[in-house]
Design brief:
Helix content: 40-55%
CATH architecture of one domain: Orthogonal Bundle
Number of helices: 3
Strand content: under 5%
Radius of gyration: 31 Å
Oligomer: single chain
Number of strands: 2
Length: 96
């Protein structure tokens, strides 16, 4: 498909882009080449190719959610910068 400079200018106007005459002259053949390549891709025979939404098969990579022993409360409180009873004290995030 051949794209003219006028078509480039019209599309630029619709997209509210300002382009010069020189830019339109550069973009017209580039856009024509891109559309010719897209036409070539449309000619590829895909009758034996299954439809996919991803190029690779997907699977869940997360582990099973099973209970396990947790870290001791005393150790976690000892690692905290400040504590209040059985809770970690943090600096105020919201004032008031």
């Amino acid at each position: 498909m051949k794209i003219s400079e006028e078509t480039v200018k019209q599309v630029a106007k619709l997209a509210r882009l300002q382009i010069s005459e020189k830019e339109a002259a550069v973009f017209a053949p580039q856009l024509s080449t891109i559309l010719e390549y897209a036409d070539q891709l449309q000619q590829v025979d895909l009758t034996d190719i299954p439809l996919t939404s991803h190029p690779f098969s997907t699977f869940n990579v997360m582990r099973r959610d099973e209970p396990s022993p947790s870290t001791a409360k005393a150790f976690m409180l000892a690692c905290a910068p400040d504590e209040d009873g059985n809770q970690v004290r943090v600096p105020a995030v919201l004032e008031g």
